[in-house]
Amino acid sequence: MYILGINAYHGDSSACLVKDGKLVAALEEERIRRLKHWAGFPSEAIKFCLNYAGIGIKDIDYVAISRNPRAHFLNKIIFTLKNRPKIGFVFNRLKNLAKVGGVFYELEKEFGADATKLKSKIYNIEHHPAHLASSFFVSPYDRAALLTVDGMGDFISTMWGIGEGNKMKILDAVGYPHSLGFVYTAITQYLGFWKYGDEYKVMGLSAFGKPIYQEKMRELIKIKDSGKFELNLDYFTFHKQGLGMVWEGGEPLVEKLFSDKLIQLLGPTRKKDEPLEKRHEDIAASVQALYEEVFFKILDNLYKWTKCDTLCFAGGTAQNSLANGKIFRNSPFKNVYIPSAGYDAGTAVGAAYYLYNQILNQRRNFVMTSPFWGPEYSNPEIKKLLEIEKLEYQELNEEDLIRQTAKLLADGKIVGWFQGRTEWGPRALGNRSILANPCLPEMKEILNTKIKKREPFRPFAPSIIEEAVSDYFEEDYPVPFMEKVYVIKPEKRKEIPAVVHVDGTGRLQSVSKKENSLYYDLIKEFGRLTGAPILLNTSFNENEPIVNKPEQAIDCFLRTKMDVLVIENYLITRA
């Protein structure tokens, strides 16, 4: 049985393929289109999944899309009659919903007559249950409390429930326009970060400030004893003017969410290219503190309702690794699973597994312990490209590749590292990474100057072999998908200064021999040379989506000042 999962007409469009309950392939459309957070119909990602499995669209038994235009339809009608948003907003939403309901016609356009041979109908899976399924049904846990928090999807912003075996039960939800995600996005815009997905910049900036505006920001949102919450809508515009979004054929755009009353509360907004001031750092710290206050109130109530100390968490805010790293300290939960694609791209997987387990009543038989579900390339393919580009290279066996690369890293060289299948999710986790020596204090500045060209307040991440986590961090729970920030032990901070954020934390990735033996061996060899079994790991890109193909890796290497490129068994040093 083949199930094609799709996230379409939403940010981070994506597709996945599931065969008999096991994930075969998954990819975000942006990796092919080369435009961050690409929104629209994920035709290229679908083609990749089918080609990887060696099948055609006519071989698909079911299609699951992570949107349901019919969900909460009465609430949508009541909201529209009550708030009377601009007619343009209503028209755009109806147009978007019509497209979601017309996925078959998109498939027919891309695959022609073969699309008419689909064996079964298309299933529309509501957005937030798809998020929940993307964490629970692929987790190692048979029973778990479930939570998803984001901006909005299918007229819901937050949903929680409980999962047991191959079934999920929804316990409650918070509906539009009340959204914790929109509060964070509104402050992100207020601080001058207007691109879709810029919230992670505010998270990084928050470490430089103090939450002195948190009390004022509590005026934005009211937390109820039940764990639910309501926005003070006087500070926002989207419920009246309509939520202006562009979800088709390119980079998603979100119009201004906040009203002038927010400016009266916090002072003048920061324009896009204005310098960051202490006030901006404090506002970033305050919105992070506010988010955590609401988040942990929800978690406390979720635990009371479920009496379960295992949590599966997904949704846009599941990328808030700073809050995630505090779950064990600030909540009763003892086990946590957050998938590598906790954000909207992951709903493609969630829709497929919701259909397979919840609707078709199939037993669970897959655990997602690996994030590597995209394309891979052979040595002969890569060798041909290197010769076309007239690049001098060494072809090495695995042992020599590890030994030489580790020595180059220890010597302070910056290495582009391209191996195996592309990562599923927003993080580079050792297959499409730029690597450097974390022991060199100047390395962060060198990386930003030579390659990344990004804001200096953003931290770089440490990849560490999993058995050494407790030696360097105050928490030792595994972090395979770089989804949590932990406090680095004070006595270790001088040893690895390039990956220590200003607040003494690091957004780590714990690397296991089982899941990525080559990357593990590289880090271990680097540790043998330097005494620190840790590498600085940042995504293989330069203000673009993470590289997907060898051609993109070579192009990034040539146009930046990277010292070394390693693609599979080939090592290229700059002339």
Question: What this model shows, in words?
Answer:
With 575 residues, the protein is α/β, with parallel strands linked by helices. Among the domains are: 2-129 and 348-359, ATPase, nucleotide binding domain (Nucleotidyltransferase, domain 5, 2-Layer Sandwich), CATH 3.30.420; 379-573, Carbamoyltransferase, C-terminal domain (DHBP synthase, Alpha-Beta Complex), CATH 3.90.870. It has 21 helices and 23 strands. Strands 15-23-22-16-17-21-18-20-19 form a nine-stranded mixed beta sheet, sandwiched between helices. A hairpin with a 5-residue loop joins strand 9 and strand 10. The longest helix has 29 residues, at 278-306. It is globular, with a radius of gyration of 23 Å. It starts with a strand and ends with a strand. 51% of the residues are buried.
Descriptive labels:
single chain, 575 residues, alpha/beta, Nucleotidyltransferase, domain 5, DHBP synthase, 35% helix
CATH architecture designation of the domain at 379-573: Alpha-Beta Complex
Proportion of residues in helical segments: 25-40%
Shape: globular
Q: Measured on Cα atoms, how large is the radius of gyration?
A: 23 Å
Give average pLDDT, whole number.
93
Q: Indicate the CATH topology of the domain at 379-573.
A: DHBP synthase
What structural category arises from helix and sheet content?
A: alpha/beta
CATH domain class name of the domain at 379-573: Alpha Beta
Beta-strand proportion: 15-25%
**Major beta sheet, specifics?**
9 strands, mixed
Spatially, the strands of the biggest sheet line up as 15-23-22-16-17-21-18-20-19
Number of helices: 21
**Fourth-tier CATH superfamily name of the domain at 379-573:** Carbamoyltransferase, C-terminal domain
Show unreliable segments. Answer: none
What distance lies between the first and last C-alpha atoms, to the nearest angstrom? Answer: 51 Å
Number of strands: 23
